[in-house]
Design a protein that fits this description.
The chain is of the alpha/beta class. The chain is about 40% helix and about 15% strand. It has a single domain, classed as TIM Barrel, CATH 3.20.20. Helix 11 links the parallel strand 13 and strand 14.
């Protein structure tokens, strides 16, 4: 394919700026810190901002103007450049442009049915009312093992497009995937929250059958990913958090990527409302089987896990990173985690959602995380995500980033500014 002169002038200018930033020494320095943190060294915490509500950032520089077939790449470049200029913190623009392998799935036989209420701010988050589709054993029979296939043609198209745009500027590389599956997040979308929680108490046998069926889906899907060489041990990011490590692939890696060479990730966000024993019996038992062969595991998302670290430790010998949310007690979490896992802190996104930015609660929150982790020699990282709104004020993210950096400077020493 050949770039139209109009598209070429737009995309090559963006790619040139992107490439220049990508080759700054700070990129490799930050990637090294990603790996050191995940290798359980106590280093300056990585700070990332992800899941930005880009619909609320109404800057003309984000407007895509190239032909529609190039919009995927143009949008990616514009957002990366904007974030670098305004709220980069420890963001990395790597010295190669990564294209993920395109994967198709036949699905599991049912699809989410819901009613959504969209906000009017341009944010991507919606309210959902889910239809309960898994009420009986007959409904479970509808669940099928998906057929996973590598879409080579679509992947090669993306590679060719990126290669043409970046020709002579930077290399383009093909990358695979980590393994992610969250049984109860899926059940919540196929059933709704009320039905799920009631049946955990009133029909536990049926809920075990439901979890077992989805565990079978996960195991079959992971096997197909492995058989078709769709995995990748070199993940820069793992669902918004740093993925770099020197511990993957496994020591006996010989070129064929296996489950033991990659990260796994799972969570049970709806289990914020259940006891540790129920969490273990209905989720961790199944994920132990699903993710036991993965090289490393990252557990958790928005559920508070400060009272369940001992269960995670028991079930997952490969556990490396635990998500700690604003609803968890950081002192309690760090005491239980100690130097054994990465404390993946999720600062409160509400602090960037107001019409004015108040740095005081941000300083207090980040200080508590730093004090707790330093006291217990715990590797620490910060990722603010699930940002439903910034009140149409992108400067909130800029000020949040500056505030967090100031606090971390006090505890871990100042970092050289990016030139």
């Amino acid at each position: 394919m050949t770039l139209h002169p109009h598209d070429r002038s737009i995309l090559r200018e963006l790619a040139g700026r992107y490439s220049e930033i990508a080759h700054l020494p700070v990129q490799r320095e930050r990637l090294a810190r990603y790996a050191s943190s995940n290798d359980l060294q106590v280093v300056r915490p990585v700070v990332l901002i992800d899941e930005v509500p880009w619909g609320e950032v109404r800057d003309p520089v984000l407007q895509c103007v190239a032909s529609p077939k190039w919009r995927w790449l143009e949008g990616c470049l514009r957002r990366a450049l904007y974030q670098w200029e305004h709220f980069q913190v420890d963001m990395v623009i790597p010295p190669v442009f990564r294209i993920g392998k395109v994967v198709n799935s036949t699905g599991i036989g049912i699809a989410v049915q819901d009613i959504q209420i969209h906000g009017d701010t341009g944010a991507y988050i919606s309210a959902h009312a889910y239809t309960d589709q898994l009420q009986s054993e007959k409904d479970l029979d509808r669940i099928r093992i998906p057929e996973i296939t590598y879409n080579r043609e679509a992947t090669e198209t993306l590679l060719a497009q990126a290669g043409e745009v970046f020709d002579g500027l930077m290399d383009v590389e093909l990358h695979g995937h980590a393994l992610h599956f969250s049984i109860w997040d899926m059940i919540a979308m196929y059933r709704g929250v009320d039905s799920l929680l009631l049946d955990l108490a009133e029909r536990p046998d049926f809920m075990h059958q439901t979890a077992t069926r989805l565990m079978e889906v996960a195991l079959a899907s992971f096997r197909q990913y492995e058989e078709q060489d769709l995995l990748d041990p070199d993940q820069m990011l793992l669902h918004c958090t740093p993925g770099g490590t020197h511990n993957l692939p496994a020591r006996d890696f010989a070129g064929k990527v296996r489950r033991k060479d990659v990260w796994g990730r799972c969570a049970a966000q709806i289990f914020s409302a259940v006891s540790p024993d129920m969490h273990d019996a209905f989720d961790l038992v199944y994920n132990e089987k699903i993710f036991g062969e993965c090289g490393l595991l990252y557990y958790g998302c928005c559920e508070p896990l400060d009272g369940k670290i001992d269960l995670l430790r028991k079930r997952f010998p490969n556990l490396r990173k635990v998500s700690i949310t604003p609803w968890a007690n950081p002192e309690r979490a760090a005491e239980q985690i100690g130097p054994d896992f990465v404390f993946a802190a999720k600062p409160n996104p509400a602090f960037v959602g107001g019409a004015t930015f108040n740095p005081a609660p941000v300083r207090e929150e980040i200080t508590r995380y730093c004090e707790a982790c330093i006291a217990h020699r715990t590797p620490l990282e910060f990722v603010i995500k699930d940002i439903s709104t910034i009140a149409n004020r992108p400067e909130n993210l800029t000020r949040w980033a500056a505030t967090v950096r100031e606090v971390i400077d006090r505890f871990y020493g100042p970092e050289d500014k990016v030139r």
